[in-house]
Design brief:
The structure holds two protein chains of two kinds.
Chain A (H helix, E strand, L loop, with lengths): L37 H16 L6 E5 L3 H4 L10 E3 L5 H11 L4 E7 H5 L3 H9 L4 E7 L2 E2 L5 E2 L22 H8 L3 E6 L3 H13 L3 E7 L15 H6 L1 E10 L14 E5 L5 E6 L9 H13 L3 E8 L8 H5 L17 H9 L4
Parallel strand pairs in A: 1-2, 1-3, 3-4, 4-8, 7-8, 9-12
Antiparallel strand pairs in A: 5-6, 7-12, 9-11, 10-11
Chain B lengths: L7 E2 L1 E9 L4 H14 L4 E6 L8 E9 L10 E6 L5 H7 E10 L14 E5 L1 H8 L3 H20 L3 H11 L4 H21 L6 E2 L9 E5 H12 L3 E4 L6 H14 L11 E4 L3 H13 L4 E5 L1 H17 L3 E7 L16 H5 L9 E3 L4 H18 L2 E7 H5 L1 E5 L17 H5 L30 E3 L13 H21 L4 E3 L6 E6 L3 H13 L5 E5 L1 E2 L3 H9 L2 E6 L5 H9 L7 E5 L8 H12 L3 H4 L7
Parallel strand pairs in B: 1-8, 2-5, 5-6, 6-7, 10-11, 10-12, 12-13, 13-15, 14-15, 19-20, 19-22, 22-23
Antiparallel strand pairs in B: 2-4, 3-4, 9-16, 14-21, 18-20
Helix pairs in contact in B: 1-4, 1-5, 3-4, 4-6, 5-6, 7-8, 7-12, 9-10, 16-19
Classes of the chains: A alpha/beta, B alpha/beta.
Chain lengths: 353, 613
């Protein structure tokens, strides 16, 4: 019941971030999802990541479409505006909202149905525009609210709860995004908070479109034997290839990394993503080989995870750079600077005499 | 040539039949503007195909000393430049009129009509002898007929030269070559025909304080002056020129000279669903945003329009109506989206619609649309059409009041937010059905969850019957507030008749002319032009005060009549439809005929003054 407010009790020992806020300040309404739903773990990771980045809650804009996943934007950062739009159309709302005020943090949460079926077009075009937002897909391979139909991410041969087998090839959002020119593409698992939290932080700080496809098992309709999106199957077939640590500008890199296997991607504000290769042969900065390697492993039923592709300089193609918008939010420009006034009109009308 | 043609100065129609993509548009604009600059009221209508090159296209120039803005329904001079359409073009000339054709090739069949003057000019030969290159010869052939018409109609060559100089300011050599083509036609006509014709132009002072502008350009200017900063759209005829014009004006007036940064975002969307989504997202986040589309786009936008209605997000949409159903005839005009726009989307939805009648109103209503959308926190649709949007209309100079400031509606400031216990987003504090909204990025206390799912007046998710209904009922209260804020109908009751005309939008010009004609025949009518939905109180009053009402509109299904019967207490039996839906703009003749046919049995009772046959 989302209208049941969580009691705001502040324990004095809760750690505070740079803004003096605790993790509780980044929570939202109580989840109405099924107990054990992968989505709730993602929500917890978002809370952790946002708190860790010290994002001003009011500066976070939470966007979603329709479905179980899209409900979750109500469950975190209650101090940020949320927009639960129509099915598959969240990217256009995000585009408009971002055009109006580029200086907010845009986080979209969608599902595999919302993104890969009804919303496939808008998803692709948000990537093409390199819209500065983090787009999280909570991917469980089924439609939950309508009781377990296959989604477009269902693997060939996977079995529905009632026994039906899927024969249609899946649409893989990671491969799609890499092919379309996305500048930050990651895959993770709702059960791996250690991997997911820094990925969310890096995605939120990325200066263009960041995608994280999070395998997020549906405990009610897709967690049985024969499903390729169950907790058990995912844990067995999940292969971390590149671990990403997000290091904010103000923090020194202190962790010890084996030489030759780590390197840092410096972000626009000076923050860094330190990438640690778990698979020595994998290069997350090469779009072409990344796509090949992901597909090679998929042939063997394995999902490579982590930050699978990153463009160190996403800004050149970012929407506002291409459009030439000023640094100030368009919604903050005073009217006087927008209207040419009666004299300006007179000048224009000369063309029409 | 019929010798008996009486002289008709500044009152005739020239129609030019050409092939799409041959550059005839510049010749036609040149002719029309030179007439306009001689102080003579003029109207131009373009009947073009949905095609890039090769299909027939027509342009109609009506020279009208009385300043009428509609089609006359008659062609006095036909310039037949397209062999494919010769036969029908010749047929269309009114008795006593003229046909100008390219006599480079003999066309004996053309000479079959005895009741018109046939003027052959060897345009192709003249241009082939004087210009090089295939493309140049084709283009110049069109400029050349403008020269012929200049001689026949006694147009001022100085105006033509000046217009060419303005058009080709950056390519002066083109001024000379174009002028050479004009002169070729002009001299040939003067040498071979009695110039001017009895139908001709003569300078007057009927265009002071007026401009020639199309509605899409005027609407784009309105958006610019309203302070719109986000424009999102998907290309569709006939709305695209509105976006093109906005970009042109914004590129000139909104770019910082030092930094080159633009105070606007211009987004070509992947489809109309995305376009309206972007507009809703931008206005939700405090920018003024708009999109322009046509019927097929409105069909696609339905779901989002329902969201804007129920989640109470402002949005501005221009529907430049074209002929439906389905793809229909994309380059022809109609008013057939009235019902679609009024009730777009599933569930109980209704939307504020504005109905401009001409480019001048497109400008003012564009500004008004943003103020209404933000005041009412809902979508506002401006229903123009292809005739208004893409044709050049003579209208009064647009004026701007520098004291104008956008009405942002009920938006809480940071100070007001700090003073709140809690935000009640959809609560009717003021009794006008409008709640208070907040913008992201201001304060955590201002945050709320915008949703298209069931919600309480406090903005919280609900499936509770009573809580749901409170919001739905309040939306109806807001609708009553809208009724008081939208532009009132324009009512002319000077005839004091028991019979009236009710119409909207681009029918206006033809109705005014028809009313003059009818008055001369002793039939005086009252007239109400509806300018917005919901209907203001004066609409109800006018309907009640008349015994018989002609509802004039440009669609098959009498959509305005349907809206009136649904939304007012009017007795259906009083409403007579005059429906024009061929795709051509409605003519005054159509209305005169419709009214007279209906009134024939009752005429003695209606006549003021002498009886006419």
């Amino acid at each position: 019941m989302t209208f049941i407010a969580k009691p705001k009790v502040r324990h004095p020992s809760l750690p505070a971030n740079a803004l003096g806020l605790t993790r509780r300040d980044y929570e939202g309404a109580l989840s109405t999802l099924c107990a054990g739903c992968g989505h709730d773990s993602i929500t917890a990771a978002i809370v952790e990541a946002s708190w860790g980045l010290s994002i001003e809650p009011q500066n976070m804009v939470k966007l979603s479409g329709i479905g179980c996943s899209s409900k979750t934007t109500a469950y975190f950062v209650s101090g940020g505006h949320g927009f639960n739009s129509v099915h598959g159309r969240m990217p256009s709302i995000a585009m408009g909202a971002n055009a109006a005020n580029r200086n907010l943090t845009f986080l979209g949460v969608s599902g595999d149905g919302d993104t890969l079926s009804i919303g496939l077009g808008q998803f692709c075009h948000a990537i093409r525009r390199n819209l500065n937002m983090l787009y999280i897909i909570e991917n469980n391979g089924v439609y939950g609210l309508t009781k377990g139909q296959f989604s477009a991410s269902a693997d060939i041969g996977t079995r529905a709860k009632k026994g039906e087998v899927n024969f249609q090839p899946p649409i893989d959002p990671v491969l799609l995004a890499i092919t379309l020119g996305a500048t930050f593409v990651a895959r993770s698992f709702s059960g791996d908070k250690e991997q997911l939290v820094p990925l969310i932080q890096a995605g939120l700080k990325h200066g263009g479109f960041a995608l994280i496809d999070v395998l997020s098992p549906c405990v009610t309709f897709n967690d049985h034997e024969g499903s390729t999106k169950s907790y058990a199957y995912t844990r067995e077939h999940y292969e971390p290839a590149v671990h990403a640590d997000f290091v904010p500008l103000e923090r020194e890199i202190t962790a010890e990394y084996a030489a030759g296997e780590t390197f840092a991607v410096v972000m626009h504000d000076g923050s860094r993503i330190v990438l640690r290769k778990l698979d020595a042969a994998y290069d997350p900065t090469n779009r072409t080989t990344a796509a090949v390697q992901i597909q090679e492993r998929m042939k063997h039923g394995e999902y490579l995870t982590g930050l699978l592709y990153v463009d160190a300089d996403p800004h050149k193609s970012a929407f506002h750079v291409v459009n030439g918008t000023p640094d100030a939010a368009l919604n903050s420009i005073p009217y006087e600077a927008l209207s040419p006034g009666s004299k300006g009109l007179e000048k224009v009308l000369a063309r029409y005499r | 040539m019929p010798a008996s043609s009486p002289a008709r100065v500044n009152d005739f129609t020239v129609k030019i039949a050409t092939v799409n993509g041959t550059g005839s548009a510049s010749a036609n604009t040149l002719l029309m503007k030179s007439i306009f600059r001689s102080g003579i009221p003029v109207m131009g209508k373009n009947y073009f195909p949905s095609n890039i090159q090769g299909l027939p296209t027509w342009y109609e120039i009506r020279v009208t000393r009385d300043g009428y803005v509609a089609r006359s329904g008659q062609v006095d001079i036909m310039v037949a430049m397209n062999a494919e359409t010769y036969a029908r073009d010749v047929r269309e000339v009114a008795p006593g009129g003229y046909l100008v054709y390219d006599s480079t090739w003999p066309r004996p069949a053309l000479l079959k009509r005895e009741d018109i003057g046939v003027l052959g000019v060897p345009l192709a030969r003249l241009c082939n002898e004087n210009f090089n290159g295939v493309r140049t010869r084709i283009l110049m052939k069109n400029i050349c007929y403008a020269g012929v018409l200049a001689a026949l109609l006694d147009l001022d060559l100085a105006h033509i030269r000046q217009l060419l100089a303005e058009t080709y300011a950056k390519k002066p050599q083109l001024v000379d070559s174009n002028m050479k083509a004009i002169q070729l036609g002009y001299d040939y006509a003067r040498e071979h025909f009695t110039c001017p014709l009895p139908l001709h132009a003569a300078a007057m002072d009927g265009t002071d304080g007026h401009i020639m502008i199309d509605g899409n350009t005027a609407a784009a200017l309105g958006c610019l002056f309203a302070g719109a900063t986000v424009a999102a759209w998907y290309p569709i005829t006939p709305s695209t020129s509105l976006m093109d014009a906005f970009k042109m004006f914004a590129d000139r007036t909104r770019v910082d000279r030092e930094t080159g940064r633009k105070n606007f975002a211009f987004i070509q969307a992947e489809d109309e669903l995305a376009a309206i989504g972007m507009v809703i997202g931008a206005m939700w986040n405090g920018a003024r945003a708009f999109t322009a589309t046509s019927g097929p786009g409105i069909s696609l936008m339905n779901e989002f329009l329902g969201l804007a209605y129920y989640a109470e997000v402002p949005a501005v949409i221009f529907d430049i109506q074209r002929v439906g159903p389905s793809t229909g005839m994309p380059t022809r005009t109609q008013q057939a989206d009235l019902l679609l726009c009024a009730y777009a989307s599933h569930g109980d939805t209704r939307h504020v619609c504005l109905y401009p009648a001409n480019p001048e109103e497109c400008f003012y209503m564009a500004v008004q649309a943003f103020d209404l959308a933000e005041r009412l926190q809902t979508a506002v649709l401006v229903l123009s059409d292809l005739d208004i949007g893409m044709n050049d209309w003579m209208c009064r100079d647009l004026k701007w009041d520098d004291s104008y400031r956008p009405d942002r509606g009920k938006v809480l400031s940071r100070e007001e937010i700090l003073g709140l216990d809690k935000l009640y987003r959809y609560f009717d504090k003021d009794g006008d059905g409008i709640g208070y909204r907040t913008m992201p990025g201001v304060h955590p206390k201002a945050a709320y969850f915008t949703r298209g799912s069931g919600h309480t007046q406090y903005g919280v998710y609900t499936e509770d019957p009573a809580e749901y209904q409170v919001v739905l009922d309040r939306l109806m209260k807001k609708w009553d507030t809208a009724r008081k804020l939208v532009p009132r109908a324009v009512i002319d009751a000077t005839a004091g008749s028991s019979v009236g005309i009710v119409s909207l939008g681009s029918c206006d010009g033809a109705i005014h002319e028809a009313m003059h004609v009818l008055k001369e025949q002793g039939v005086g009518l009252d007239y109400m032009r509806v300018r917005a939905f919901p209907f203001s109180e004066d609409v109800e009053k006018f309907l009640a005060a008349h015994e018989l009402l002609f509802v004039v509109e440009q669609n098959r299904d009498a959509q305005l009549r349907a809206l009136l019967t649904l939304e007012t207490a009017v007795d259906k039996a009083k409403l007579r439809s005059l429906l024009h839906y061929s795709g051509l703009p409605i003519s005054s003749a159509f209305i005169v005929e419709g009214v007279l046919t209906e009134l024939a049995p009752r005429r003695p009772a209606l006549q003021h003054g002498a009886a006419h046959g």
